[in-house]
Write a structure and sequence with these properties.
The protein is built from three helices and six strands, in the order αββααββββ. With about 140 residues, it is α+β, with helices and mostly antiparallel strands. The protein has one domain (about 35-130). Strand 4 and strand 5 form a beta hairpin. Helix 1 (about 1-40) crosses helix 3. The protein is elongated. The chain starts with a helix and ends in a 7-residue tail after the last strand. The relative contact order is 0.11. Residues about 125-130 have low confidence and may be disordered.
Length: about 140
């Protein structure tokens, strides 16, 4: 009986010691998401015009992209979409599904989902030719 009580007591102490660490993790996540928001705001409609608007009424979210996005290199485009997705998910290690649209034509130009970042053919801007982030055709 004493052994059982000692095991239960040590288990309770272990759980109690781990609880503050979870609170610290939440603060780290919150700080990272705030950092993402500041960066994304600098790239928004009043900044570099990477994105113009977000339609979050339906899932996946619809992100309307501006000219700044299309003039950026492939690596910057992918980083931007991953960061925006993480910001929408509200967690630095999780991602939300996003459909990407050209704000000028209102046509779908890419997506971010389970298969990663896909940008369709730039020349057609709205065509359905899938491309890798570095611009190669799949």
């Amino acid at each position: 009986m004493k052994i059982l009580a000692a095991v239960i007591f040590s288990l309770c102490m272990t759980l109690a010691l781990n609880a503050p660490a979870r609170g610290q993790e939440f603060k780290k996540w919150e700080a990272k998401i705030a950092e993402h928001k500041r960066w994304l705001d600098s790239l928004g409609p009043h900044g570099s015009k990477f994105w113009i608007s977000l339609d979050s009424k339906s899932r996946p979210h619809r992100l309307y992209l501006g000219e700044g996005f299309f003039h950026a290199d492939a690596r910057t485009q992918e980083r931007f979409v991953e960061t925006y997705s993480s910001y929408l998910a509200g967690h630095p290690e999780k991602f939300a599904l996003i459909d990407l649209f050209d704000s000028a034509t209102r046509r779908e130009v890419g997506e971010f989902g389970w298969g990663g970042f896909k940008l369709y053919g730039q020349s057609a801007r709205g065509g359905k030719t899938a491309r890798t982030p570095d611009g190669r055709r799949k």
